[in-house]
Amino acid sequence: GDLTERGSDAAVGGLAGGVLGGVVGAGIRALGGKAPSAQPSIAELKAAAKQGYQSDAIKGLEVSPKAVSEAAAGIRAKMDAEGFDEIIGTKAHAILKRLANVPEGATITGQNLHSLQKSLGKAAGSMDPQEKAAASMALREFNNVLENLPSQAVWRGSVDDFTNTMREANANYAAASNSGRIDQKLVSAEIRAAAS
Length: 196
Fold this sequence. Notes:
The chain has eight helices and three strands. The protein is mainly alpha-helical. Helix 4 crosses helix 7, helix 5 packs antiparallel against helix 6 (110-123) and helix 5 (90-97) packs parallel to helix 7. The model is unreliable at 1-36 (pLDDT under 50).
């Protein structure tokens, strides 16, 4: 068909979809249900993540340096096995190595762990594709440790509150990041389409 036909078909389809959506939404509300709500915005997701990371469940946790050091060593071994050794994944290895030098008897807080998480996140934003891949793997593994922290590693605070809060905050942060990347791709596509 020609452009006129396609434009007419699109207008009819849009009108029919709008009417149908309105009727279905009104029907759901009439039956006592709720119409589907909009997804949270990127700003709302980031705010929820920040609130979780700054909560007492995270800040109030104290963990055994030995347990954290062993977890970091395990992550570094996994990285080595995947070819992300200290030459390829320099930043990620250096960040994780800091945990090997924590003196016994020292205290590591949930806030310290989140700070390390942020450092790995910054390394995962590297322009170097190999460093980015290595740091992204280290961050995924470290998040897995934080979200599944064993109770015997905890000296003070609630391991359940910490892991549940960390899971939720990480999920909110990931959703905000993914939404931001999708928005950026849409803007880039719109710019390319307008330029052609």
